[in-house]
Specification:
Length: 277
Amino acid sequence: MSGTDVPLQPKKKGLTRRQKRSLSRGVQYVVFVAAVIAFAVAADWDRLKNQFAQGSIAREMFPDVITLALKNTVLYTVSGFVVGLVLGMVIALMRLSSVGPYRWLAGIYIEIFRGLPALLIFIFIGVAVPLAFPGTEIPGGTYGKVALALGLVAAAYMAETIRAGIQAVPKGQMEAARSLGFSPARAMISIIVPQAFRIILPPLTNELVLLFKDSSLVLFLGVTLEERELSKFGRDLASQTANSTPILVAGLCYLLITIPLGFVVRRMEAKAQEAVK
């Protein structure tokens, strides 16, 4: 080697992409654990227990919190879901109709009821309808009003979900049904819609979970003691006892329904993905 030759320096190797990802995850874990420890140390657990975990108050809520409040919540939710599903199916078919006014009406309905908060719909049903139609009573009393209010809101979302499911069914299915002598309406009801519902079951179940939580808006309709749902039941007892334990118990009752429903949704989504593969 001549005197003018410069020895080659070895290149410095940086972290690989996998090492960077591992380092990033490690930092995130450390930050998360540190935040949990900081919260656990800073929180006043005695005050939290006194305010939210009084066993004697929680025991006094049973069995009424189940036989009355939870039962009413489920009834409100199921009735609203049924109304929303039927109305949503009609609106979805109108949205797909070849008749222009049907499509326009369906589009206007969807935009209005998806854009308005559910609270305003409840107030409209409870206040505006009696003023507009004096002497007219919605069948079923409070249960009918809640079913109608929740159904009007849910139908706007379900309609778009159902429409997407119908459009996801291969067009060849309709053509095959027509070649067998089915009318368009019969082919839609017998062939297309059943296949569409297998596709849209997970999002429809998600809508059921949302309705279960939206049923708490029933308090704006004015309910009797026997018509209270979980949220109203918990708030009333919390006011009477000057303690928040009833609120916590009501929240846990909500989770008794929403967590299993969420698990069902994930299972259905997993099965749908396996079917596609």
